[in-house]
Amino acid sequence: MKSIILLAAVVLLSTTACQSQINNAKTETVKVYGNCGMCETTIEKAANKKKISKADWNEETKMASITYDSKKTTLDAVLKNIALAGYDNQSFLAPDAAYDKLPGCCKYDREKKQVAIVTQPAKDTTKPMQNHGSHQYDGMNNTSQETNQLTVVFDTYFALKDALVKTDGNTASAKAKDLETAINAVKMDKLPMNVHTVWMKVLNDLKEDAEHINGTKDISHQRDHFMSLSKNMYELIKVVKPAETVYYQFCPMANDGKGANWLSKESGVKNPYYGSQMLSCGKTVETIKQ
Amino acid sequence: MLSLAILFTLLISNLFAQKIVRYDLYVKDTIVNFTGKAKRAIAVNGQIPMPTLTFTEGDTAEIYVHNEMNEETSLHWHGLFLPNKEDGVPNLTQMPIKPHTTHIYRFPIIQNGTHWYHSHSGLQEQIGMYGNFVMLKKTNDPTFRKGIDDLATVPIVLSEWTNIKPENIHRMLHNANDYPALKKNAVQSYGEAIKAGHFKTKLKNEWKRMLAMDVSDVYYDKILMNGKPSTDLTRIEGKQLKGGDKVRLRISNGGASSYFWLTYAGGKITVVANDGNDVEPVEVDRLIIAVSETYDVVVTIPAENTAFEFLATTEDRTNSASYYIGNGIKQLVSPQPRLKYFEGMKMMNDMMKMNGDLDDMGMNMSLNQMDMNVVMYPEITGDAKPKQDDKDPNRYNANALADIVTLNYAMLKSPINTALPKDAPVKELKFTLTGNMNRYVWSLDNKVVSEADKILIKKGENIRIVIYNNSMMRHPMHLHGHDFRLLNGQGDNAPLKNIVDIMPMETDTLEFNANVEGDWFFHCHILYHMMSGMGRVFTYENQAANPLIPNPKLAQRKLFADDRKMHFMFQNDFATNGNDGEMMLQNTRWSIGSEWRLGYHNMHGYETETHIGRYLGKMQWLMPFVGFDWRYRKMGIDEQEKNLFGQTNTKDNRAVLSLGVNYTLPMLVRFQTEIFTDGIVRLQLMREDIPVTKRLRFAFMVNTDKEYMAGLNYIFNRNFSLRTHYDSDMGFGAGLTFSY
Q1: What pLDDT score was predicted for residue B375?
Q2: Which of A163, B101, B132, B691 is most exposed, with the fewest beta carbons within 10 Å of its own?
Q3: A174-178, A240-244, B330-334: which has the highest mean pLDDT?
């Protein structure tokens, strides 16, 4: 009996201790986007500030109950920290870099994020184009749509290349996943004949390299596959002739001195095979433009 | 009909007559509460920042300054072309505005652009006396840029707030107090170095006699944009902002000592003007704004129903302020990641020669193009330790290393020809920026304002100035009353500026035509550097006397008083075995200090040493001094002590004069040699602030009198620490140390 009383006292004390942690406590329930249990940990950690604020996020409802000291902070200050950790919520959108860094399972759909208004490079740059986000792709004609679907492939390739330049295995893996998705999304029958032929030729290799890069976080393994990926991508880009100029670059030291190539949107050399170790090793060997 | 006529006459008078624009500014003490603590500040017309003053080129400004405080004040119109007596530098271009008096500044507005104004008296700028000063172009101005000059515009003045009184900050800086580093988590102690695998780096750093340094000196509690840490900008001049809108921000850095990184969540930032002068639009991902610079930037709201964060982050990345531009959910921009301090330390080690000079290793740095600090920026050089090739010519070039574009001065190009008159005689001046972080002495050519003569120039001359920064910090050098051309490789289209930020080891060349007589201040705009004497005065030969300076000798003495000021420090350890303490008064060159060890009984004894010395040399490692020692201790009858040299010495009651010299050895150990009037010689090694961990300091002392001491200090806060030590005279003790 005595021990039960003691236990009860301890429980009582500890609960009051818990409650007394945050003074002037105010609790609000708000929407925080996320997917899984891992998100819950990150969201709650971002909101947790000793004696000032804490959060309890529900995976089912995507609602967070946020308790904070109303004299020391605000709901928005807590939500800002949650957004900086990568999670959109009722007040803030996460920085893209923070969202990109989330593990795969946490990549929730960004419902709140608006599509950017496309301002075409008009001659009079002073007047913003008045077309609205929802009509973004409507105005495009068929020919541009054909190459358009490959533009996504190229752009994800460049993003992957940038990740390798930064020697960032995690991002590289994520970008390779995007590349796989982009490759699978291409509707072959819509491609012009000459592009179609090359596409058929490189498709399997592209997929395989992308899968391998996605499947590991080991940067050297990723770079090995990036060599053949770049080679195939080069064949493809040569027939497509993208609107923007692309540079085919070469580093003689990569691949154990045998040399390796890559594609870049910039003329300046940023080596994806060595990153900061030998960032500017290499040169442009071919300029591809329309 | 009548109203039409009135309108017409108004228009006429606007067009043909000079329009006088009058502002009344009431300067008053106020109490502010930025952090939950009520603190003193200065408000003008009841607000911080001071009100935005707007004029159009061609107007005449009439500004009535009503000083309602009990202290003197002044207002300087930063970047303006005006008669010297309106420039607002107390004791140089006018006498200070006395308490409870009114002073009128009256000058024609003969330029346009984004500028600002601030107090030039003491440290008032730190506590609220800064504001926007906007001069619009006339609509028929041939340089009017459609799509830029007609955009919706918001002036923003950046500033910082600290709960500590600025006078106290200034004093602490001069005493190398490491409390700001502690607040910023930038102590860079041995413990942290070992954890980061940088023990050798730290050792080498101290070997080269450097205290751990940061990119900035002062810890601020809040960063403010127009007086607030966070602002929602949803409408401009009554018009709701929507997706696709462009907004022009006129940004002035009114911070006393902080540089700010500017970044935007909605894409690129287009820079359209700098220091009030138009530049060809240039798109960047980010820019750093030096203390007292101004930039006009254009940003676009790229989507509907979203507000995009425009973020100003201090250079040390400890704090920031935001403007949310647009309506709707707030899209954040990635914060600037924490600095990699030990990489910075390693870089400094490589650059610092044993004699305290900097060595740029043949890189010819200028115009902020090579930023040594990139080694500390994770967003440029990655999170991991960089394994860069030391031969890579781009290893400090942020724009070559990363895919984000950072603005540098070489990218600024004036849309107009800025060449100086070709036939004017050229006078070339060279300055080396010098400094000593440990003692917070900042100077030009190792001379502070009070130690140097005014620099004589002739009206009509082209003045060319070559500045080399041989100090360890960057300095925003500001010239009053003139714009200069910064020679940045743009030929005749070199940009016009009135501040140039010079990073360590950089050399920049600037030139201007001497066209307005007067005494013009040229100084570092970091407030605490300026108050330490980092500046010069340009003066024209045979110029007319300034009617506002009736007694030039008195004015000069008061001007020089700023950098001659003595800074006081006091420390005492209330320990179980006695009181240990010291007290010091120091300025640029002189030091008057007293140390004491007072036991609680005669066996422990009582002793004090007082030294008056002068620091010599640029690095101030050497300080000869005269001293006076007094001690009393009862060791027993006629007990005598022998020192290492066999000299005997009764310490029972001794009062002697001495001559000596202090020298700072590598590892920052202070070596003291002292010879006393009784012929006794004493050599001593001592260091009191070895950072073991973030809060723990180790101290030791040993001398040829066979005295020794070792102690540990645990720092609680700015004023208190726990200390335990063992002293050969007084034995073991523990106590509380109070420092001021």
Answers
A1: 75
A2: B101
A3: B330-334
Smallest Cα distance from A170 to chain B, Å: 13
Q: Which amino acid is at A37?
A: G
Residues A87 and A35 in one domain: yes
pLDDT band at A4 (very low <50, low <70, confident <90, very high): low
Q: Which of B36, B243, B332 sits opposite A93 (nearest CB)?
A: B332
- Name every residue whose Cβ is closer than 8 Å to that of residue B344 and which is 6 or more positions away in sequence: B215, B373, B375, B376
- Count of the separate structural domains present in chain A: 2
Chain B interface includes A114 (CB < 8 A): yes
CA distance B245 to chain A (A): 7
Residue A9: the pLDDT is 53
Task: Show the domain range for A232.
Answer: 142-288
- On whether the CB atoms of residues B37 and B163 are closer than 8 A, the answer is yes
pLDDT greater than 50 at residue B252: yes
Is B222-331's fold the same as B567-739's? no
Q: Which residues contact B598 (CB under 8 A, 6 or more apart)?
A: B578, B579, B606, B607
The domain defined by B426-541 folds into: Immunoglobulin-like (2.60.40)
**Closest of B601, B596, B420 to residue B494, by C-alpha:** B420
Q: Do residues B735 and B573 lie in contact, with contact meaning Cβ atoms separated by under 8 Å?
A: yes
At B267 the three-state DSSP class reads coil
pLDDT greater at residue A258 or residue B8: A258
Do both A266 and A213 map to the same domain?
yes
Q: Residue B17 — very low, low, confident or very high, per pLDDT cuts 50/70/90?
A: low
List the domain boundaries for chain B. 13-144, 177-210+340-405, 222-331, 426-541, 567-739
What six digits make up the tokens of A171? 């991002």
- What ipTM was predicted for this assembly? 0.81
Does the distance separating the beta carbons of A275 and B382 come in below 8 Å? yes
Q: What is the pLDDT of residue B288?
A: 94
Task: Determine how many CB atoms are found less than 10 A away from the CB of residue B486.
Answer: 26
Residue A184 CB neighbour total at 10 angstroms: 10
Q: Which class is B222-331 in CATH?
A: mainly beta
Per-residue tokens: A94: 């996460």
- Same domain flag for A168 and A279: yes
Interface A-B: count of C-beta contacts within 8 A: 95
In the predicted structure, residue A116 carries a pLDDT above the cut 70: yes
Residue keyed to tokens 């309108």? B7
Pick the CATH number of B13-144 from 2.60.40.420, 2.40.128.20, 3.90.226.10, 3.50.50.60: 2.60.40.420
Does position B74 have pLDDT exceeding 90, yes or no?
yes
Half-sphere exposure of B6 (CA within 13 A, CB side): 3
Report if residue A118 sits inside a domain.
Answer: no
Handedness of CA B411, B413, B418, B422 (dihedral sign): positive
Neighboring chain A residues of B400 at a CB cutoff of 8 Å: 268, 279-280
For A92, which of B245, B305, B329 is closest by C-beta distance?
A: B329
- Report which of residues B115 and A181 the model is more confident about: B115
Residue A140 binned pLDDT confidence (cut-offs 50, 70, 90)? very low
Q: Each residue of B428-447: pLDDT tens digit?
A: 999 999 988 778 889 999 99
Least Cα distance to B524 among B473, B594, B591, B466 occurs for B473
The CATH code of the domain at B567-739 is: 2.40.160
B316-334 per-position pLDDT tens digit: 888 999 999 999 999 999 9
* Binary contact (A97, B334; C-beta < 8 A): yes
Q: Does B302 touch chain A (CB under 8 A)?
A: yes
pLDDT category of residue A250 using cuts at 50, 70 and 90: confident
Q: Residue B330 and residue A95: Cβ atoms within 8 Å?
A: no
DSSP state of B198: -
For residue B84, the 8-state DSSP code is G
Q: Name the residue facing B246 among A97, A128, A270 (closest C-beta).
A: A128
Is residue A171 in some structural domain? yes
**How many Cα atoms within 13 Å fall on the side-chain side of residue B369?**
16
